[in-house]
Amino acid sequence: MSATALAPRFFIAVVAILLFCRLAAWAFARLGQPPVVAEMVAGVLLGPSLLGAVSPRLENELFPPALKPVLYVAGQIGLVAFMFQAGHEFRSHLNRAIARTAAAVSTAGILAPLALGALLTLGAHGRVGIFVPGVAPGVTASFVAVALAITAFPMLARIITERGLAGTRYGSLALASGAIDDVVAWCLLAGVLAAATGKPKPILLAVGGAVLFALLVVYIARPLLARALGTGGTASDTQVLIVAAALFAAAWFTDEIGLYSVFGAFCLGMAMPRSPAAERAVTTISTSNRIIFLPMFFVYSGLNTRFGLLANRPLLVFSLLAVIVAVIGKFGACWLAARWAGQGQATAIRLGALMNARGLMQLIALNVGLQAGIVNSALFTALVLVALVTTLMASPALTVLDRRMPIAPEPQTPDPEPELAPASG
User: Chain centroid to CA 225: how far?
Assistant: First the structure.
């Protein structure tokens, strides 16, 4: 298909994507779910799991094979903007007063899913078709483990804000725990991607490139951005252009060294100065790109998700076990860690519910694995199911807890001494 013929197909596909995602957001809002959850579901419904099953011809007309690479690139723009904003928000939620509890919760929420996910995957070797030929089983197990350890930090932040808990100890603790969790998980994912090659050159390129990138961000990009943005209350067109150029340069560099664009975008977001002009630049770049381009990422993911594969009994069993392992490893471990750190039952169980959501962050990891050739359609579908189920659980769980186990918003206080709180707390 020529570029001239592809352009109108792209435009009508974008119309269908944006309208359907907006309709889904409206419907899911009535169920108490944030828009990003609706967009995740909408992306799957527009793929072979529903539209392709009901009307394969219509799916092929809307999303011909030649359009998929275009949707991937357009979706990357939305992802880069989204992760840029997530990195900026991460920095603003750092809080030393709750660091000890947040570290305990995030550590438990990483180690338990890592161990359980690796054991589940290795146990499935030779029984379930989730392994890619030529990829070591240990690499696949490591990837699944990291995918289950991820937390949907941006969605967690949105839920906290919408419920008016951003200034409370509980809200800040949840945000800090989720942020630490994701930073560690992304670093582990980078290690898995580097190890997947089995050759020293890509690993050295990734490690050396990451060190060079960190130095460039800290010693060049950060001071230059601080000088360019200054302390003004608004960001000019030139300032927004400078930030956008730095953002896409960071995405390009991390893509080239094998760590993918999302890493560069997140790190640059963390390096942005704290000033009104910087806030305005981040909002200007992130908001429109996220609204327009991010839904294309969800649809691209949906086109690679085939829930019809779950008719295969071994894959279905693996998928259900993965959901159970994901919930136990994240919800259960974070709840226990919060209790050990001295949090009451009401706070601890809410932390577990929030940290359990994987959301968009896991979808990003899955697409990275798919592009790297270490994830096949069966494993992709199984882990998309995990992402959807655990994300859909979060808001309803909090609503039920608010009714049955209310917690009064309290100002932040220093961490208590680690001790197990009474069971009735």
Answer: 26
Query: Taking the chain, what is the end-to-end CA distance rounded to the nearest angstrom?
Result: 64
Percentages (nearest 5) of helix, strand, coil residues in the chain:
80, 0, 20
Widest CA span in the chain: 68
| Radius of gyration of the CA atoms of the chain, in A | 21
Tokens of 92: 């603003």
With vertex at residue 181, the alpha carbon angle to CA 21 and CA 103, rounded to the nearest 5 degrees, is: 145
pLDDT tens digits, 57-103:
999 999 999 999 999 999 989 888 888 887 887 666 556 667 788 88
CATH 1.20.1530.20, applies to 3-404: yes
Is the predicted pLDDT of residue 185 greater than 50, yes or no?
A: yes
Residue boundaries of the structural domains of the chain: 3-404
pLDDT in tens, 108-154: 999 999 999 999 999 999 999 999 998 999 999 999 999 999 887 77
Nearest to 301 by CA among 37, 19, 75: 75
Residue carrying structure tokens 């990357």: 76
> Counting beta carbons within 10 angstroms of the beta carbon of residue 127, is it exposed (0 to 12), middle (13 to 18) or buried (19 or more)?
exposed
Taking the C-alpha atoms of residue 183 and residue 104, their distance in angstroms, rounded to an integer, is 15
pLDDT per residue over 370-424, tens digit each? 988 999 999 999 999 999 999 889 888 888 888 888 775 554 444 544 444 433 3
CB 26 within 8 A of CB 81: no
CA dihedral 368, 323, 24, 156 (to 10 degrees): -80
